[in-house]
Amino acid sequence: MTIPDYRTPIKNQIGGVFIPVRNLEKAKEWYGKILGLERGEDYFDHIFVAPMEGTAGLILDAMPKWRKEDGDISTYQVPSIQFLTDDIQAAYQFMKENNVELVTEIQDNFYFVFKDPDGNLLMICKEVS
């Protein structure tokens, strides 16, 4: 299949992935521990950007403009973000040891789903080489 040569000012590149969080400080601590994040930058009193390999950054956002009337925010109810690992068994064991809420066991020796402290469903997958 040939893709037409569309002219666009938009880059074919993901600049970052937003994850809605209720408490930015707690989220920074949790994601730092789970992903081994050593640095990042705060912006606008509600955003934390941590550099990641493969994208410009993982963005934890308290999302004040997107909150419901009661002040809560919607979370991902399907796993829409995939983190990679070379060792799915070690990753699963690490999550268990850190009391992360696991939603599935390891599936097809390839992936598992877990929840972050805000209830977002996320996934760990074995990197395909």
Automatic annotation (TrEMBL):
A Pfam entry, by short name: Glyoxalase
Domain VOC stretches: 13-127
PANTHER family to which the protein is assigned, alphabetical: GLYOXALASE/BLEOMYCIN RESISTANCE PROTEIN/DIOXYGENASE (PTHR36437), GLYOXALASE_BLEOMYCIN RESISTANCE PROTEIN_DIOXYGENASE (PTHR36437:SF2)
Descriptive protein name: VOC family protein
Organism: Lysinibacillus zambalensis
